[in-house]
Specification:
Length: 336
Amino acid sequence: MKKTLLALAAFTAVGITTTAQAEKVDVCVFDLLGKSGESYQMAQEWALAAKGWGADVNLIPRQDEAVADNDFKAGKCDGVFMTAMRARQYNKFVGSIDSIGGVPSNAIAQKAITFALDSRNAAKMTTNLSGKKYEVAGIAPLGSAFIFVRDKSINSIEKAAGKKFAVLSYDNAQKILVQRVGAQAVASDVSNFVAKFNNGQVDMVGAPAYAYKPLEIYKGLGTNGAMFNFPVLQVTADFIIRPEQFPAGFGQKSRDYFVKNLPKSFAMINRLESGIPAKYKMNLTAEDKLKYQKLMRDGRLELTKSGIYDAGMMSVLKKARCSVDKANFECSLGGE
């Protein structure tokens, strides 16, 4: 009997040790500035919290987003932080938060992200693609994207006709919208789209305030450039994991962490947006704002119909927009 009790005690001790031992996982983090960037630093804070959810995270910095994605696909990483425009391939519902004109303010962005990450939407966070399972374990806001021009005389949609606009080659949404305004889409990557603007290869570029200082957008603006003080889309970063490589229940704990930290993230974004010098900010007329809104709505409808955006998320975003601005022209229209 004594031997049996000792054996049970030993087995229990081994079981406790095994349970307490965190699972080792590798996570690739895309940040143009590598370990010194704010995205990587945010990931470090998250990794520290993840220890409490049973994961021992090894962060792998990647300054090229395509490399981070390819490493994830090849199994070199168990999870990856990257922009939603590239992550949309893994989850269209979440990836559609970055739709053109879908989220015209940081307040609406906070509502949309909070809703998406709520436990009631847990089923929508998981997808099966070609026999492989993926899960969205977090969404981080990077702020509204604004249009920057090298010449402030390009101050309307009509004047954008024929101008060169840097677009991310893997995001069909950008290409379609640029073509709709008559501009010339110049295929680029997240690692060089601003560089093309700064060295004069393109006349226009869209980027969040998050990129203003790190990518030195002010060099492209010079003394004659401007920023349209009108958000065209909300830029977010998604955290995608292979759930089988993480402890059970990890995904929702991680999503709850991201929601809890949203106020802190948006406080940072607001600080960065206010840090862009007022001399560059060009306000649009009420007539031009309405023109842009209608143009972007038409683009969203077209892109949703063609399967690029998720119809369910488009409905969620419209409700969020109209809860803030009930008088908006689109609130009485169907289609989203």
